[in-house]
Amino acid sequence: MKIAICPGSFDPVTHGHLDIIRRAAAMFDRVIVVVMTNSNKVPMFSREERVDFLLRATRDIPHVEVDTYGGLLADYARQKQATAIVKGLRAMSDFEYEFQMALTNRKLNPHVETVFLTTTAEHMYLSSSLVKQVAQLGGDITGFVPDCIVEDILRKNGR
Ligand code: PNS
């Protein structure tokens, strides 16, 4: 069985993330979406909230599971016997950082390959940070995130 991990902060999950998760689910037997800590970012949503958003947003995607882990991705991949870490690449600006993480993860766990899926043109510009900024400043976030979490994001921003 080929197991893949889709790791990220998912703060919050966007249509761009869901596109990558759907495509990974078509390539692997089992896909584990794991909410992790990015030490460079201060999240708006708790890990529990982010897991809940993902559970609701991925309900209709077969053989996708949602989990959370506070440690190293390389260790998590080992525990789950995953053969791949799937990440989305939007632009060259993502590349340097993602490349560095992929090489670090390979050093820490040589049994797991990082696989990059290029984002669809439609989601090229989309990021969780952008969604949070738009929400904080009173803009319309429908179309950026799944409908089932729009209210939660607005509520968190006092709307
Ligand atoms: O969605 P993000 O913020 O780009 O995801 C980055 C994330 C959470 C996948 C990365 O920070 C990570 O792997 N965190 C877990 C801790 C870890 O393994 N750090 C070393 C990465 S080389």
Strand content: 15-25%
Which oligomeric form is depicted? Answer: single chain
Helix content: 40-55%
- Give unreliable regions as ranges: none
The name CATH uses for the topology is Rossmann fold
CATH arch. level architecture = 3-Layer(aba) Sandwich
Class of secondary structure makeup: alpha/beta
Based on CA atoms alone, the radius of gyration comes out at 15 Å
Mean pLDDT: 96
CATH top level? Answer: Alpha Beta
* Total domain units: 1
The CATH fourth-level homologous superfamily: HUPs
Tell how many strands the DSSP assignment holds: 5
- The H/E string reads EHEHEHEHEHH
Instruction: State the major sheet.
Output: 5 strands, parallel
End-to-end C-alpha gap: 45 Å
Strands of the biggest beta sheet: in what spatial order? 3-2-1-4-5
Separate helix tally: 6
- Bound molecule types: 4'-phosphopantetheine
Overall 3D geometry? Answer: globular
Provide a descriptive summary of the structure in words.
The protein has 159 residues and is of the alpha/beta class. The chain has one domain (3-156): 3-Layer(aba) Sandwich (Rossmann fold). It contains six helices and five strands; from the N terminus they run βαβαβαβαβαα. The protein has a five-stranded parallel beta sheet with strand order 3-2-1-4-5, sandwiched between helices. Strand 2 (30-35), helix 2 and strand 3 (64-68) form a beta-alpha-beta unit. The protein is globular, with a radius of gyration of 15 Å. The relative contact order is 0.20. The protein binds 4'-phosphopantetheine. 4'-phosphopantetheine is lined by residues 7-9, 36-38, 41, 72-73, 101, 104-105.
